[in-house]
């Protein structure tokens, strides 16, 4: 089981409250988490990653264990604390302004 924390607007879109849990087979990577998340909550398709390129949307960031993983390879294994559900995988809406 993997724990995922979504920002409020994505929780509203997916119609969930609080943390989401996912069962994932195989290596725990950004890609495997996002694939499982989009399979479980189809309304999130295209909101976190581009439909065609599967690249992270510009104002979405990924964090785990206090580290920004947004620019890491989507196929790089995530920390063991995420894989064992000791820590959640965080999807965060970035803020821009001037």
Task: Describe this protein with a few key phrases.
98 residues, alpha+beta, Ubiquitin-like (UB roll), five-stranded mixed beta sheet, globular
Folded structure, characterized:
22% of the residues lie in helices and 19% in strands. It has 98 residues and is of the alpha+beta class. Strands 2-1-5-3-4 form a five-stranded mixed sheet, with helices on one face. The radius of gyration is 13 Å and the shape is globular.
Question: What portion of residues is helical?
Answer: 10-25%
Distance between the termini: 40 Å
Quaternary form: single chain
CATH superfamily: Beta-grasp domain
> Over the alpha carbons, how many angstroms does the gyration radius reach?
13 Å
Structural class: alpha+beta
How would the blueprint of this fold be written?
Elements lengths: L1 E4 L2 H7 L5 E3 L7 H11 L19 E5 L2 E2 L11 H4 L5 E5 L5
Can you give me a brief rundown of this structure?
The chain is α+β, with helices and mostly antiparallel strands.
């Amino acid at each position: 089981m993997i724990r995922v924390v979504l920002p409020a607007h994505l929780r509203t879109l997916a119609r969930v409250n609080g943390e989401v849990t996912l069962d994932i087979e195989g290596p725990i990577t950004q890609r495997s988490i996002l694939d499982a998340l989009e399979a479980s909550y189809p309304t999130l398709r295209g909101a976190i990653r581009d439909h065609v390129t599967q690249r992270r949307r510009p104002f979405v960031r990924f964090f785990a264990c206090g580290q920004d993983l947004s620019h890491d390879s989507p196929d790089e294994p995530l920390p063991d604390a995420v894989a064992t559900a000791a820590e959640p995988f965080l999807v965060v809406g970035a803020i821009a302004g001037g």
